[in-house]
Design goal:
This protein is an alpha/beta fold. The protein contains 13 helices and 12 strands. The strands form 4 sheets. A 5-stranded mixed sheet has the order 10-9-8-11-12. Helix 6 runs parallel beside helix 13 and helix 12 packs across helix 13. It starts with a helix and ends in a 14-residue tail after the last helix.
Length: about 350
Amino acid sequence: MPRALRASRLSGLLASVVLLAVAAVGCGDSDSGSSSSGAKGPDSSSAAGAFPVTLDHKYGSTTIESEPKRIVTVGLTDQDAVLALGKVPVGTTEWLGGYKGAVGPWAKDRLGGAAAPTVLTDTGTGPQVERIAALKPDLILAVYSGLTKAQYESLSKFAPVVAQPKAYNDYGVPWQQQTEEIGKALGKESEAKALVSGVEEKFAAARKANPAFAGATAVMATPYEGTFVYGSQDTRSRILSGLGFSLPKDLDKVIGDAFGANISKERFDLLDQDVAVWIVPDLTTAVTKLHGDRIYSDLDVVKQGREVFVQETGDYGNAVSLSTVLSLPYVIDRLVPQLAAAVDGRTGTKVAQPAS
């Protein structure tokens, strides 16, 4: 399954999982020493005065009594907010692959001198309970996740768990709320708000520099099992909204209560926007296949050169899929010039790939 879909599709698989026994909490783990309990990033100021703190989520509320020292991120992108706030998790959950500690290049300097986190995996059967327990966490973050109630209850037996917010679809939490919720959990609420404001200022600067974005329509899609379109609650669509674009008016009506869905060729009108951003496996074969579809290739968005292609693999595509407080500035620097070229009103303008 493409990584552009993998995280959100896990929620459907997790519902049928048979949990590992929590009696295995005491089991050892050969990787458990990969990140020390005292390791911290650049901002290691004490947050002791902020505790206890209680956070509401999909399965009730969780109280964190004191400043956490050993944090495990079950949420597939939660590590970036933790690192941005000056903490280094002892464990992270793999999603994209290829990065030591599941820490991308946009976040790597936040490790400081600390060891990379132990990387856990979730292949669709739920969190690795035994390995998480062996890391002896005092906080488990599952904000960007599809955690089930049974999994939440299982993990809560040996550490406080902050699950996904109930106001959004699984894997649908906006990056702003994700950052702020994690900030509260770490006793760094004001720092989290400042981080969010900084990234929002970068979005605002991009909108100001590109007035053509305002009022223009855009859609984010990927050629997974046909044509898969992302809905308004997906983090990737929120990049477009944050830059001033409007999403197709019938988008969520077609998709329903989900992060996205495959559409039939009868609804290819959803793709015929002022710009269509495609997350593709590669920039050659996949694009050729798309343009080989007679119905799609006859749309104005294609004929007028208003497509943007982002390769799924590689740092750029990974940063788009993560859409975190640390990866978004990286994305904006690369995506905005492509979007500007696509909507400049000149069909001959080439939408070039970022230089790096």
